[in-house]
Design a protein that fits this description.
Number of helices: 5
Largest sheet: none
Shape: elongated
Distance between the termini: 79 Å
Radius of gyration: 42 Å
Strand content: under 5%
Number of strands: 0
């Protein structure tokens, strides 16, 4: 190396010809771009994994919430049924003591419950609320469906006539 090249290289000045400097800087740029791309891909994979995990946790939370509500509802129903059972048994014993026949008290309370059930069965459907959603036309009756079906049928090719025999025109040409 000449004394000027040594002096310039010690000052940090690039003494290589411009072509080789461009090639090296191009390689450096490409390797930097590759490293950045790898980092970006790695970050995207991590983001997708975290997003999937978040969705899983949210789903687990919803399922847990619904399960807790169902269990609470079942406990309330069971306790309500036991309460009604004991109240009705007490009523039957009390009615039986009024008529001096415990069995007749149970029959009277059972008859009253049977009448209440019959009235609810006959009159109840009149008062039951039906769906508040308006009647909607079926998919085939919807105007947009008709337009789409007409457009689709006009743009598709007709089916081959030999389809019922299990052959198409191309299959016949091959055989």
């Amino acid at each position: 190396m000449s004394e000027d090249a040594t002096h310039n290289s010690s000052k940090g000045i690039d003494t290589q010809p411009p072509e080789s400097a461009d090639k090296q800087s191009g390689r450096g740029r490409i390797s930097a771009l590759v490293d950045e791309t790898k980092g970006l891909v790695s970050d995207m994979k991590e983001w997708v994994d975290l997003r999937v995990r978040l969705v899983q946790l949210e789903l687990e939370e919803r399922i847990e919430k619904v399960a807790n509500q169902v269990i609470s509802l079942l406990v309330i129903i069971v306790l309500g049924l036991f309460t009604a059972l004991f109240l009705l048994l007490g009523l039957a014993v009390w009615v039986g003591s009024l008529v001096d026949s415990p069995a007749l008290g149970y029959v009277i309370v059972g008859g009253i419950l049977g009448l209440i059930t019959l009235v609810i069965q006959v009159v109840g459907p009149r008062f039951m609320k039906t769906s508040s959603a308006p009647d909607r036309p079926s998919l085939a009756e919807h105007p947009e469906s008709k337009k789409l079906l007409k457009k689709a049928s006009s743009t598709t090719e007709p089916m081959p006539q030999d389809i019922d025999r299990g052959k198409t025109d191309e299959a016949e040409e091959l055989s």
